[in-house]
Amino acid sequence: MPASSAFLQNWLEPIFGHWLYVDSMLWTVVGFLGAAIFGSRFLLQWLQSEKEKKLVVPWYFWHLSFWGSVLNLLYFLHLDKAPLILGNCFLPFLYGRNILFLRREGTKGGGRKVFAAVAVLVLAGFGWSMFFDKDGDTGPGGSPEHRSKALLKQTAAALKGYHGEQGHFPSGDAKAILETLKKEGFPVNAANLPDTTDVSLDGWKQPIQILTSGNSFIVRSSGKNGIFEDSLSETRDDILIQGSVP
């Protein structure tokens, strides 16, 4: 599946590290919690309106809006999709401003209860993800499969960016190509493990392949078994991204 171009990754990754863009159960939890907290405000507002038999917007509506939008924005930064980020980046500030208006009107104290409830949910969700990660690896960056997929996605995006500037793909083996991308300002390090600086290694510490032909490319990991296999093999667990540039 072709990788999409990065939006903020090239700027944010050097600051926050590769964990922001590595697929893992932790990010799934953040996504679900953000959607649940943000959506719960409407349910609670409806119940309060039914109780009072008129349309009301309770004070906690804005607190749930704020924390839900914060988690949603974090998740959208992880997805690195421009429409999602641009459509939600101002919401925490708007909801936070409404909370300040509430405080000026004398509504204080309740926000701490909402924050405590959100904190408990987040900690519980993170704890759950640590124990139930599907690949059994909860270290930095997620499982070997997660790190490998992230490396391939970053490499595909970097290849597109490089081609867009230079008009061609870099040459050489995977390690040489990645070093060239890094030198030209397209860092690729999502799969790096603490004990290696070789950016050409996937999450299982196996070398990846980068194949280019004209305007097309394939970025490939050999998977857990460490063997590059054809599509007819019963044991094939390769991970690959193929794409092309105009």
What would you say about this model in short?
With 246 residues, the protein is mainly α. The chain is built from eight helices and three strands; from the N terminus they run ααααααααβββ. The protein has two domains: 25-132, no CATH class; 144-244.
Q: Could you walk me through the main structural features you see in this protein, from its secondary elements to its overall organization?
A:
Helices cover 54% and strands 7% of the residues. By secondary structure, the protein is mainly α. The chain folds into two domains: 25-132, no CATH class; 144-244. The protein has a three-stranded antiparallel beta sheet with strand order 1-2-3, covered by helices on one side. Helix 2 (25-52) runs antiparallel to helix 3. The two termini are 16 Å apart. Residues 134-140 and 190-196 have low confidence and may be disordered.
List the helices and strands and how they pair.
Layout: H1 9-16, H2 25-52, H3 60-79, H4 82-88, H5 91-104, H6 110-132, H7 144-166, H8 174-183, E1 209-213, E2 216-221, E3 239-244
Helix pairs in contact: 2-3, 2-6, 3-5, 3-6
Query: Order of strands across the biggest sheet?
Result: 1-2-3
The largest pleated sheet is described as:
3 strands, antiparallel
**Number of E strands:** 3
Number of helices: 8
| Low-pLDDT stretches | 134-140, 190-196
Strand content: 5-15%
